[in-house]
Design a protein that fits this description.
159 residues, mainly alpha, elongated
């Protein structure tokens, strides 16, 4: 379709579907290339922002949160109101992937703004658990287990 569509009627849709297929099999660099082509073929801002979020998702799945963050910064200036929630969700995920847990929690709280207080308390509890886990050193656990078997598990909280 890409090569024989002289009028370009199906070009954007074909590029986006091809990128979706590449993303589905884990070929994120090829997916990103085709998403970028589709982005420039898009006719309106809604289509472009939809593709932009697919680009951000591909960066995250490709373990490249820095590039996802750059895309979010560019997108923030021209964000349509209908994509605000999606922006907050992806911003929270990207901040978490970059180990910026404070910002991540802020974005998730904004995303869940209409949720009851129990949801926000549960989210804070998860971030407190994450803080404890991120301070643990696996090398310390190995050393403790070498000295006294089971002590490393105790250190990691696996009693």
């Amino acid at each position: 379709v890409l090569y024989f569509d002289q009028s370009g009627v199906y070009r954007k849709a074909s590029l986006e579907h091809l990128a979706d297929a590449y993303a589905g099999i884990g070929a994120f660099k090829l997916a990103l290339r085709n998403y970028n082509f589709a982005y420039y073929q898009a006719e309106d801002e809604t289509e472009r922002q939809n593709i932009n979020f697919k680009i951000i998702q591909s960066h995250l799945l490709n373990d490249d949160p820095g590039s996802a963050q750059e895309e979010l910064f560019q997108l923030e200036e021209e964000l349509l109101p209908s994509y605000k929630q999606t922006f907050l969700l992806y911003s929270g995920i990207t901040a978490f992937a970059r180990n910026d847990f404070g910002k991540s929690a802020d974005f998730f709280h904004q995303y869940l703004i209409k949720s009851p207080p129990e949801v926000h308390q549960a989210l804070d509890g998860l971030f407190r658990k994450n803080e404890k886990v991120s301070r643990l050193n696996p090398n310390t656990a190995v050393t403790l287990s070498t000295i006294f078997p089971g002590l490393g598990q105790f250190y990691l909280g696996n009693i």
